[in-house]
Amino acid sequence: MKPGTRGRNILLYAASEKSADIQYASGFSCPDPFIFVRTGKGRRIMVMSDLEIDRARATARAHRVLPLARFTRLARERKPTATTGDVIAEVLRELKIRGVVVPPDFDVAIADQLRSRNIGVRPLPAPFLSRSLGLGSGPLSCILPE
């Protein structure tokens, strides 16, 4: 196990058609960005739009698939001009997560929005998925353990 990686909360926000990290972590293909959290205890949570939630529940490799609309509503109750970072902060608040590691290509503006909400954000260098899961560097290092 690599120090500082396993047992950490992982946050991904991307379209799986453009991000290998979120594709492998979720096992779900979607053209639109979505939220994926892997808790330090290994629970995989996805937050999906109404359009994709049923398909994600049926096919994704996640313990829970939550509705994006609920977190968007909560964020807008706090701030009418809620940003993506505000919505993600609501998700993390519900999961009682106060700090996350993110891939090196994570959106800086979203990271700053999370930090302004007192959520620690730490980027890890590539290869992100194998580092964040504490896997080796062999050819199977990007496959999630069950």
Textual characterization of the structure:
The structure is a single chain. With 146 residues, this protein is of the alpha/beta class. The chain has a single domain (10-132), classed as 3-Layer(aba) Sandwich (Creatine Amidinohydrolase, Chain A, domain 1), CATH 3.40.350.10. 34% of the residues lie in helices and 18% in strands. The longest helix is centred in the middle third of the chain and has 11 residues, at 68-78. The protein is globular, with a radius of gyration of 14 Å. The two termini are 17 Å apart. The relative contact order is 0.17. Mean pLDDT is 86; it is low at 1-5 and 135-146.
Topology at a glance:
Layout: E1 10-14, H1 20-26, E2 34-38, E3 44-48, H2 53-59, E4 64-67, H3 68-78, H4 84-94, E5 99-102, H5 108-116, E6 120-123, H6 128-132
Parallel strand pairs: 3-4, 5-6
Antiparallel strand pairs: 1-2, 2-3
Q: What is the CATH superfamily classification? A: Creatinase/prolidase N-terminal domain
Physical arrangement of strands within the biggest beta sheet: 1-2-3-4
Number of H/I helices: 6
| Computed structural class | alpha/beta
In total, how many domains does the architecture comprise? Answer: 1
Mean pLDDT comes to 86
**What is the overall silhouette?**
globular
How many strand units? 6
Low-pLDDT parts are: 1-5, 135-146
Largest sheet composition:
4 strands, mixed
Straight-line N-to-C gap: 17 Å
**Helix proportion:** 25-40%
What integer value in Å does the Rg equal?
14 Å
> Architecture, CATH level 2?
3-Layer(aba) Sandwich
Order of helices and strands: EHEEHEHHEHEH
